[in-house]
Amino acid sequence: MAEVAANRDGAMETFRKCWMLSTDDSNMTLHGFRRFKTTHLLNLRFLEHETADMDHAVYQTGLSLGLSPSSSDRLCLKHCRRDAGAPDFSQVVTPEFILKLRELLKQYDEALAAFNRIMNMETFSLLDDEKHASLRDDLTIDEILNTRLLRADLGTRSRTDPFQRWLHKRLRVFRYWRALGKYWNTERGLGPTAGRPRKWSYQNTILVADIIGRLITTTLTTAFLIAPLAILSYASSKEMQLVITLSCILVLCFFVSLFLKVSSFEIMAISAAYAAVLRYLFPTLRRALE
Q1: How many beta carbons lie within 10 A of that of residue 204, not counting itself?
Q2: CB-count burial class (<10 Å; 0-12, 13-18, 19+) for 203
Q3: Terminal CA-to-CA distance of the chain, rounded, Å?
Q4: How far apart are alpha carbons 261 and 171 in whole angstroms?
Q5: DSSP string of the chain?
Q6: Percent of the chain beyond pLDDT 70?
Q7: Where is the DUF6594 domain positioned along the sequence (predicted)?
Q8: CA 175, CA 173: separation in Å to the nearest integer?
Q9: What sign does the dihedral 34-37-38-39 (CA atoms) show?
Q10: Of 133, 143, 227, 250, which sees the most CB atoms within 10 A?
Q11: In whole angstroms, how large is the CA radius of gyration of the chain?
Q12: Kind of pairing, strands 148-151 and 123-125?
């Protein structure tokens, strides 16, 4: 009876926590899920190890047939190491072996593709969601800082700029020191003061970093358009104007490639467009000043 009561209490506690997370007013709590990165990787390694054993058996069986490799030998079969005393073909390639190999490859491919999709999803720190973090009794504040939750309601982060990721990190560090100094108790660094309910705080790092990144990008874009024109208006010789134009283009390309996630073709397009804008605006500004 004691065990049944304990199981019932455990189920009710689990339901209470899940209900709190599923009925919260914050989208971070509602759509934040653990990604279990290490466990996923461990599962993939187990599958990889099992698949590698079967793959080795397939290769050794194929080599034991004594067939000549193709002319190009794209698999380098001529240089494969052959095990001594390889089992007979009929003892390895059985219907049971084929079914097991087919199922194992299916599990491996699905797990690999699923992990790729998970790792491309937008993430935020468990530290950013104080209510969600308060339900985790097994983590220290440093572990909470480094625990990532997935945002199931957002798109992928495949186009997230390196500058925005840097902002994410800085905002998480700011949240960490703020939590240590103000919000969370000394023993665990977590949760409200006992007996006194309080309003949970959130830090939507994704949104804040996106807004700050857009504002900074807009400011720098404006500066790269106005500053060269102001400098060129005081340059008398054409050689000096050419040097200034080339320098501005190189600096812009450097900043774009360093802080934004763009392809080589996009960098070329940005450089060409920027040079064309300078070429068009400078004569217009020069005539206006005259």
Answers
A1: 17
A2: buried
A3: 96
A4: 20
A5: -HHHHHHHHHHHHHHHHHHHHHS-S-HHHHSEEE--HHHHHHHHHHHHHHHHHHHHHHHHHHHTT-PPPPSS-TT-GGGPPPPTTPPPHHHHS-HHHHHHHHHHHHHHHHHHHHHHHHHTB-EEEGGGBHHHHHT-TT--HHHHHH-EEEETTS-BSTT--HHHHHHHHHHHHHHHHHIIIIIS-TTTS-SPPTT------B--HHHHHHHHHHHHHHHHHHHHHHHHHHHHTT--SHHHHHHHHHHHHHHHHHHHHHHS---HHHHHHHHHHHHHHHHHHHHHHHHHH-
A6: 83
A7: 25-278
A8: 5
A9: positive
A10: 133
A11: 30
A12: antiparallel
Tokens of 61: 């069986």
Q: What is the DSSP string of 74-91?
A: TT-GGGPPPPTTPPPHHH
Q: Which residue has the tokens 């400078």?
A: 282
Q: Contact at 8 Å (CB) between 202 and 129?
A: yes
Q: Which residues on adjacent β-strands are paired with residue 124? A: 149
**In this predicted model, which residue has the larger pLDDT, 248 or 43?**
43
Say how far apart CA 23 and CA 19 lie, in whole Å: 6
Q: Are 111 and 43 within 8 A, CB to CB?
A: yes
- Angle, helices 95-119 vs 37-63, to 10°: value is 140
> Which two structure tokens, joined as six digits, stand for 71?
């002319």
Tokens of 58: 């397939």
Distance, in Å, from the CA atom of 152 to the CA atom of 118, rounded to the nearest integer, reads 10
Tens-place pLDDT, residues 193-204: 444 455 778 889
Kindly list the strands in the beta sheet with 148-151, ordered across the sheet, starting from the edge strand earlier in the chain: 32-34, 148-151, 123-125
